[in-house]
Fold this protein.
Amino acid sequence: MLQHLKNIDTAFKHIRLFSAVLIISSVLLCCYCIYFCVQKISDAREKVYVLAGGKAIEAVISTRKDNIPVEAKDHIMTFHQYFFSFSPDEKAIENNIKKALYLADESAKQQYDALKEKGYYNSVVSGNVSQTITCDSISLNTNIHPYYFRFFGKQTVIRTSASIMRNLITEGYLRELNERTENNPHGFLIEKWVTIDNTILSSTKR
């Protein structure tokens, strides 16, 4: 009788151990399945398929951190295009400057006000002067925020009597904003912007 009870007790212990192992294994398996499904969903969200010509083309979504150098340089380039490129038209100049000032802080407004006080824009309109800018390169340090940059380019000023090419080097810092807007699609703001060099490189009579 005692041996029979002992066997029952041993069998019960074995069943209890087996049940505990089975429950733990089931929990671990469920956790793994949940993790695997979440990971697959996360990976799927990072992929976009674009239908072009009847074929599905995979487009991978990248994070803002991956795009910072590209977007930052485009922001800098766009700002300089708006600030330095214009035609002899008051409304066109004001429109470009307005767009540029959305991309920079008070330092850009101060440079604009200084040029305006000197009558620079009035002379552009009265003298039928047009101005364009080309970018040679942009140096950008994204290791420390705000990001330091230096812009290297050429400025072409076309007057009635001559065409002048100027060197243009500016520098400043880029601060990331919390959101993008229609007027600032890249979500950056140029700070402490200064012009280092704007000397004349060549002058050609027309």
About this structure: Residues 2-45 form the longest helix (44 residues).
